Amino acid sequence: MRIGLIGTGRIGAFHAAVLARHPQVEALVVTDADPARAAGVAALTGAAVADGPDALFAAGLDAVAITSATASHAGLIARAARAGLPAFCEKPIALDLPGTLGALREVRDAGTVLQLGFMRRFDAGYAAARDAVRSGRLGRLHTVRAATSDPAPPPAAYLPLSGGLYRDCLVHDFDVLRWVTGREVAEVYATGSDAGPPVFRAAGDVDTAAVLLTLDDGTLATATATRCNGAGYDVRMELAGELDQIAVGLDDRTPLTSVEPQGHGAPGKPWPGFLERFAPAYEAELAAFVAVVRGEAANPCDGEEALRALRVAEACELSRRERRVVRMAEIPGG
User: Fold this and answer.
1) In terms of domains, do 73 and 184 share one?
2) Which residues contact 176 (CB under 8 A, 6 or more apart)?
3) Is residue 140 located within the same domain as residue 66?
4) Is the pLDDT of residue 334 over 90?
5) Among 3, 55, 156, 214, which residue's CB has the most CB atoms within a 10 Å radius?
């Protein structure tokens, strides 16, 4: 199998290494807006280098992985669809609903495959939580608490291009909340704070956010996020039911210190970032993509799933801006 990869930044370089060592990938072709960066990744992985997307799409590919800048995703998804190529794309499809809906229309019209990179669906802890909910082990689920905390803000230049904290960061929590519980979000109330570094105010973004979500069966969920968690990278989910309560992401590397006399101390080696925390999940999602391309598995996360998570993020932005509860029926694309 020949796979092309567009974008060799941090996540692109990681994906390139994973694909290059996959036993079913015979050849990998990479390209990047920065030719030197693409050449560096090619040297490490044994990939060939294409001189831009035109050359890459002309390289006789079986599939394409899109890990480039967010603004390019929708156009490249559409191009892959028109070329009849299955595509894997890092989230999001686009930064707004019109762009997302347009790209999905191209995929539907072409009848091609689009898998989105919501890697938490492939994490062992989230998968176990899903099984616990679906098996009835927790009884009636009544409360879910999700949290994503980055250890430090991203570069200032990234913030205006990110889509904001809800679309860029919390969208992962919205997707995995739906996936684990099997329920849809009915309404949200969101708030945020820009009291931290001034770069967030300059970008019209917030550095910390909190969301209350009501699911369609009455389950209550909270989702919080911050860019300023100096203790380390912290991604967790707690699920409480009438029979039991479980936690995802609670281990000896969780950057959380108990102040109880018998509590555990600070972790010796807290998670530094998402690549370290979710490395096995990233590998598993790409293995799934290869299996989908080979016709051996169903698509585990298609574009419609990504649209549902983005619509929740859009509802949160509207709620924060207008300081009110927003019902999902108000958001287009449903």
Assistant:
1) no
2) 118, 120, 121, 126, 146, 237
3) no
4) no
5) 3
* Dist CA 17 CA 14 (whole Å): 5
pLDDT value of position 249: 98
Query: CB burial class (10 A; 0-12, 13-18, 19+) of residue 302?
Result: middle
- Same-domain pairing of 104 and 63: yes
Query: What mean pLDDT value characterizes the chain?
Result: 96
| DSSP codes, 169-219 | IIHHHHHHHHHHH---EEEEEEEEE--S-HHHHHHT--SEEEEEEEETTS-
Instruction: Let me know whether 72 and 187 are in one domain.
Output: no
Question: What's residue 138's pLDDT?
Answer: 98
Does residue 145 sit in the same domain as residue 226?
A: yes
**CATH number for 89:** 3.40.50.720
| pLDDT in the model for residue 180 | 98
Q: What is the pTM of this model?
A: 0.96
Strands 208-215 and 220-226: antiparallel
Task: Look at residue 51 and tell me if it is in a domain.
Answer: yes
Choose the final residue of a domain: 78, 112, 146. 112
Residue with tokens 């595509």: 87
Contacts of 189 (CB under 8 A, 6+ apart): 211, 212, 319, 324, 325, 326
Q: Mean pLDDT throughout 109-123?
A: 98
Domain, as residue range, for 78 = 2-112
Percent of the chain topping pLDDT 70: 100
Instruction: Count the domains in the chain.
Output: 2
Cα separation, 126 vs 21, whole angstroms: 26
Last residue of a domain, one of 112, 143, 168: 112
We report the CATH number of the domain holding residue 172 as 3.30.360.10
Q: Could you tell me the pLDDT band of residue 29, with boundaries at 50, 70 and 90?
A: very high
Residue 285: burial class (beta carbons within 10 Å; 0-12, 13-18, 19+): buried
What are residue 193's phi and psi, to 5 degrees? -130, 135
Query: Given a cut of 90, is residue 95 above it in pLDDT?
Result: no
Distance CA 288, CA 296 (A): 9
Asked, for residue 106, whether it belongs to a domain, the answer is yes
